[in-house]
Every structure is written in C-alpha cells, then in structure tokens.
C-alpha cells in the first residue's frame, strides 16, 4: 500500500487478499456458513446480533489477556505524531490517554478509568466477527542494468500510461529511459505491483525502497481467481505460495497468465526508505492496518483481537490482543474488513498470504 492511496488489490493479500481476490476478499468469506467461519476464528456463542450499525458502544472489553505489542504501538503513535500534523491534531487527546494507559501497564480492564470510550465493530454479519487479512512489503532481487537472469524491467511512470500489461511486456515502454531496475522474476514484479510498494535488493547489501507512482488505468483482474477458474489451483488451496509453486511448475505459462490482468503499476525511488500508508505515516508491522475509511477513518486507534494461525494457515484456536492504528486503505478493503501490515520480506509475505481469518475489533476514543 502506498502513500498515493493505491487501491491495493490484495490478500487478499486475501483468501490471499493481496494477490488472490477470489479467495482473499470478504465477499468470498461471507459465503461460508457459520460452522465454516468458526474454523477461521469467528465466534457466535453469546454474541448479540447487531445487523445495522457498523459499531456499537460498549462499557468494557471481555478479555483478561495481555497486550502483546505495547511498545510497537507507542512507536507507531510516535510516527503519526512525527509525520502527520493533521492526524496528531485530530487525535491528540485520545493518543495521550492511550499512551498513559499503556505506560501504566495496558490492562484492558482499566481502559475506562483512563477516559477511553470504546466502540466494537459489529462484523460482517452482525455478530462482531471482523475479517482480517494481511499485506506486506516484498523484497525483489534486481540489478540496475539488464544482465544475466535479470531481464524483467520495473518501470517508472510514463507520460502515456495507457498501455496494457501485455503491451508493456511486448516492449511498449522499452528504451524510453523508464527502467528503474531489472529483476530476475516477472512474477516477483507482478507481486510488487499488487502490494503497491516494496524493497529492491541490488546485491550491494542495501535495500532501495520503491514507492507507488501510478497505475495504467486498466481494471485489476485477480490471477488467483483465474487460476481457480482454470482448474489449476483448488479454491481452498489458493494463496501466494500456491501461485508461486504453480509458476515454478509452469514457467512458460506465467506471462500469459499475468497478461490476462491488464492493470500495471509504476514505481518511483523513495529515498526515505520507509514503508508508508495512505496517511503518509511510516508503518510498524502488526501495529497498523488498512481500513475502509468510510467506517474507520485514518488515525483511529484500535484494539484488535487477532487470530493466531499455524504454518499451514490453520487457526490454532487462539487470539492475541494487539493495539493498532488505521493508517492505510485498499481497494479490496471494504466494510467490516481489516488488512493488517505484516512487515518486510519473505517471512512477512508468507504470513500475509496465509491470513484470511476472523477476530474482534474495538475502536478506542
């Protein structure tokens, strides 16, 4: 997700929202029945039904669990205060209350004694179950010039940006001085575009941050959905990992698949080196989320009961309590759905690709 409000078509990143809109978005999960959703962390027993309002006021949060990321949350608040005068002004009173509460031990049962007002999200179907997916900042191996296996250009924004992906792959932008780098993987370039920004490893020990610069104006088509419809990957197995494995097994089919998505993303060097959300604030992993700003405005602090999943993407039966701030948006992030920033690199990408679960969310005011 990028500073320029890129409509991240993700994991969704997803069930991978980031890449897999067919299996990563809320419309897919909403088709599951209650017992299926319970396997992904949803809860229905003793949950009152709220069919209309996006959130409801509550006096207390029924949890005795410890906050697992108090320091990261304070760090994220510090970034907001450093990078956004507007958000700092709008939320200064709330941030101060929460900072005092965190420094005093961050016991959930003591929130109200610090003057914090609490509203709980009502969830997809009114039972307070909020869809949670993940996104991340990829690291792409590349070189400054075309050499050896590094043959796949990453482009800056052209004046005439209305070429399709297929046209660009066939040379529409070649030789115009727009090449920022050449990677060793067409699929990695594609996933970089899905995330909207990421890091480039030029092999010199340093990472360069490429930020979102623009898009060619064509509608995004999910390659995850295409692979499911083509019978290449079962819907229940869809993930970024599954897409990569398919690409490794079918290298001659990768370009043809990607060309069926005409949308193409362009980049620019961001020498700050910081991953920023649409609010212009550097993001801290697992302390920031993308939200639907019509429901949860940028800058809103949140207490999030996040599902704990294993290496296979299965819910372990446990949730963690994390403090976060809404600082990003996404084209696939609508309604009762949060996309949680997972961090940088392959490990973060794997976590993002597995996340398609349910938890509970409280707005703190």
From TrEMBL:
EC number(s) per entry: 4.2.2.n1
Residue ranges occupied by any Lytic transglycosylase MltA domain in the UniProt entry: 139-268
GO annotation (BP), single: peptidoglycan turnover
Organism domain of life: Bacteria
SUPFAM superfamilies documented for this protein: Barwin-like endoglucanases (SSF50685)
GO molecular function, one term: hydrolase activity, hydrolyzing O-glycosyl compounds
A Pfam family hit: MltA
Keywords carried by this UniProt record: Cell wall biogenesis/degradation, Lyase, Signal
Gene Ontology CC terms, in alphabetical order: outer membrane
Annotated Gene3D superfamilies: Barwin-like endoglucanases (2.40.240.50), RlpA-like domain (2.40.40.10)
InterPro entries tied to this protein: 3D_dom, MltA, MltA_B, RlpA-like_sf
Official protein name in the record: peptidoglycan lytic exotransglycosylase
Name of the gene: mltA
């Amino acid at each position: 997700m990028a500073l320029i409000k890129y409509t991240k078509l993700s994991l969704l990143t997803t069930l991978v929202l980031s890449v897999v809109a067919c299996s990563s978005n809320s419309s897919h999960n909403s088709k599951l029945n209650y017992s299926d959703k319970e396997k992904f962390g949803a809860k229905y027993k003793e949950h009152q039904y709220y069919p209309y309002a996006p959130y409801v006021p509550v006096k207390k949060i029924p949890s005795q669990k410890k906050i697992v990321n108090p320091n990261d949350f304070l760090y994220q608040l510090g970034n907001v205060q450093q990078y956004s005068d507007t958000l700092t002004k709008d939320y200064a009173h709330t941030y101060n209350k929460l900072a005092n509460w965190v420094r005093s031990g961050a016991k959930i049962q003591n929130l109200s004694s610090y003057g914090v007002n609490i509203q709980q999200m009502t969830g997809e179907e009114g039972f307070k179950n909020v869809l949670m997916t993940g996104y991340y900042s990829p690291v792409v191996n590349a070189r400054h010039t075309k050499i050896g296996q590094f043959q796949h250009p990453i482009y800056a924004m052209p004046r005439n940006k209305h070429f399709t992906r297929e046209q660009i792959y066939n040379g529409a932008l070649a030789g115009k001085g727009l090449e920022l780098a050449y990677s060793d993987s067409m699929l990695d370039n594609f996933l970089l575009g899905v995330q909207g920004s990421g890091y480039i490893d030029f092999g010199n020990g340093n990472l360069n941050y490429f930020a979102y610069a623009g898009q060619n104006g064509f509608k995004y088509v999910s390659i995850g959905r295409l692979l499911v419809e083509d019978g290449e990957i079962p819907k229940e197995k869809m993930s970024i990992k599954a897409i990569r494995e398919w690409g490794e097994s079918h290298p001659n089919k990768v370009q043809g698949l990607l060309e069926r998505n005409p949308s193409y993303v362009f980049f620019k060097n961001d020498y700050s080196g910081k991953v920023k959300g649409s609010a212009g604030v550097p993001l801290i992993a697992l302390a920031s989320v993308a939200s639907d700003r019509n429901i949860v405005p940028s800058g809103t602090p949140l207490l999030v009961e996040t599902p704990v999943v294993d290496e296979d993407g299965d819910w372990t039966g446990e949730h963690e309590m994390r403090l976060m701030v809404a600082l990003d948006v996404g084209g696939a992030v609508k309604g009762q759905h949060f996309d949680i920033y997972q961090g940088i690199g392959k490990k973060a990408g794997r976590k993002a690709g597995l996340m398609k679960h349910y938890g509970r969310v409280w707005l703190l005011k």
